[in-house]
Amino acid sequence: MSPTEATALLAAARKANPFVEELLVSGRPLPFKGEEVDSYTMGSLEEAVLCMESVGDAWRRSTDALAWLRDNAALQSAAPRARKTPPAKPRRKTAAKP
Questions:
Q1: Are 17 and 42 in contact (CB under 8 A)?
Q2: Which of these, 2, 15, 52, 57, is most buried using a 10 Å CB contact count?
Q3: What's the pTM?
Q4: 3-class SS at 69?
Q5: How many other C-beta atoms are found inside a 10 Å radius of the C-beta of residue 68?
Q6: Please, are residues 17 and 44 in contact by the beta-carbon 8 Å criterion?
Q7: What contacts 19, CB < 8 A, 6 or more positions away?
Q8: 33-57: buried (b, 16+ CB within 10 Å) or exposed (e) per residue?
């Protein structure tokens, strides 16, 4: 897989559930430890926990993959954020009426 393809897949994964990447790179213990997650919604923290329980160990064993993910997470946080709303247009000064 090319770096471009990997980056595109990472962008899709971030859009689907940003919590998974956060849990992988943070190294913090999983939330809900000792509790069974019995339901979730797409993109939720609960879904991310289930994902980590399923594939988290594989990511942790692949130190190169985890390093790549951390590097890309750092690049994303350093990138300028897109504005959600366009900047306000400057107001024109109107001439005072005599």
A1: yes
A2: 52
A3: 0.69
A4: helix
A5: 15
A6: yes
A7: 43, 44, 45, 47, 48
A8: eeeebeeeeeeebbbbbbbbeeebe
Contact (Cβ atoms closer than 8 angstroms) between residue 21 and residue 73: yes
Q: Rounded to whole angstroms, how far apart are CA atoms 35 and 85? A: 40
Encode pLDDT of 34-65 as tens digits. Answer: 788 888 999 999 999 999 999 999 998 998 99
Of 83, 31, 67, nearest to 52 (Cα)?
31
Sequence letter at residue 83: R
pLDDT tens digits, 63-75: 899 999 999 887 7
